[in-house]
Amino acid sequence: MGELQHYPADTPNVPFAQRPIIILGAGIIGCAAARQLLQNGFPVILVAEYLPGDQDFRYASAWAGAAWHPAGGISPEWRYLQAISHRQLLKMAQEEPESGVSIVDALEYVERPPAENSSAWGRTLAAKWRDLQPGEYPSEFSCGWSYETLVTDPTLHMPYLAKKITALGGQFIRKRVESLEDLYGMFPESSIFINASGIGSQTLKDVQDDLCFPERGQNVFYKTKNCRTMYFRNGQEYTYVIPRPMSHGVILGGVKQADNLSSEPDMEIARDEIARAHRLAPEIVPEHPPEDTLSYIVGIRPSRKGGFRLDSEQQGNRYILSAYGFGGGGYAFSYGVADALCKMVEKAERENVI
Ligand SMILES: Cc1cc2nc3c(=O)[nH]c(=O)nc-3n(C[C@H](O)[C@H](O)[C@H](O)COP(=O)(O)OP(=O)(O)OC[C@H]3O[C@@H](n4cnc5c(N)ncnc54)[C@H](O)[C@@H]3O)c2cc1C
């Protein structure tokens, strides 16, 4: 007989390998992280008020454009997150059409000569990048570039992810919680919790991140067969035409309205977006598209002053990983964030065991 082992009084009854990683939030961030963790062998439970397939306007992931666009003004670390997302989305576009991810052409026009930290860094990873020559872009712009990019159709991608997660053994629990503390009570055996609650982090009692704010977006979906080219205009007039080939149309936008929580489409904004899209891409968007080809999208971007939060904190035996505040870029960062979270979970677990 070996010597009796003495464990601390709070040693969980569930063996290490079966203690689930708990994710609060089932938007693109929570679901992308769940998929990656499950693929790496971790048990995962997602708790969320809204789940894939839901259409509440506060559930941002249902309403995104959702284009992969290289964000300007970001750090090298954040660029790397976008690079990983790009790689994963490209793989899905090539190997899993049911994921709703497509490869499309992109044209970007820039109003002023690009600053040092502009979105032109995208040339390091996008295929077929080419600087446009004068004459290839409208004369009111200073320059432009074309490249191949990835668009994700959220109406297909979120249900696809839910199916993947379930097939890998992940579990969804529909529940609204008022605090992370509520979750600790629900899962006393778990020590790793991921807060991917988007705008929820503004109000969760033990988070109450004052930097978070809702940023209303409104888009027009225009049904057309001409849906293989993205147009992007950055500067004073923030306008995009994002193709959604699998739904046979394009998304016209955009608008950002801080702290506006109206779920009703504003028709003045819609008319302005159509007019701007027509100016940007007249060969795709006519001046007056027939009303029966149009529908309207309203969603709240989970924005955060100073940018998103992605970190890990230890509180006693517990690790709380935060991944929220992705504003208008949650899809472009998604799989890179999932990869980073996975590495943080592995580190936390290792520290717990050793
Ligand atoms: C009009 C529009 C266009 C966009 N276009 C693009 C684009 O082209 N490219 C791009 O990359 N991004 C785009 N985005 C942004 C993108 O949609 C978001 O960044 C992304 O969806 C955020 O994902 P998330 O998982 O953090 O949040 P969400 O999708 O909002 O998910 C949050 C989850 O947390 C849950 N939750 C929150 N609080 C609680 C609580 N108290 N209890 C239980 N559950 C809770 C919710 O129920 C939900 O499941 C766009 C957004 C909008 C609105």
Automatic annotation (TrEMBL):
Query: What's one GO BP annotation on this UniProt entry?
Result: D-amino acid catabolic process
State the superkingdom: Eukaryota
All copies of the FAD dependent oxidoreductase domain together span: 21-343
| Record GO terms (molecular function) | D-amino-acid oxidase activity; FAD binding
Known cofactor(s): FAD
Q: Does the keyword Metal-binding apply?
A: no
Q: Which UniProt keywords apply?
A: FAD, Flavoprotein, Oxidoreductase
InterPro entries, A to Z: DAO (IPR023209), FAD-dep_OxRdtase (IPR006076)
This protein's GO CC annotations = cytoplasm
- Chain positions recorded as D-dopa binding sites: Y240, R301, G328
Return the Pfam families for the record.
DAO
Chain sites annotated for binding FAD: V177
Which family does this protein fall into? Belongs to the DAMOX/DASOX family.
Record-given protein name: FAD dependent oxidoreductase domain-containing protein
Per the UniProt entry, what species is this protein from, by scientific name? Answer: Aspergillus welwitschiae
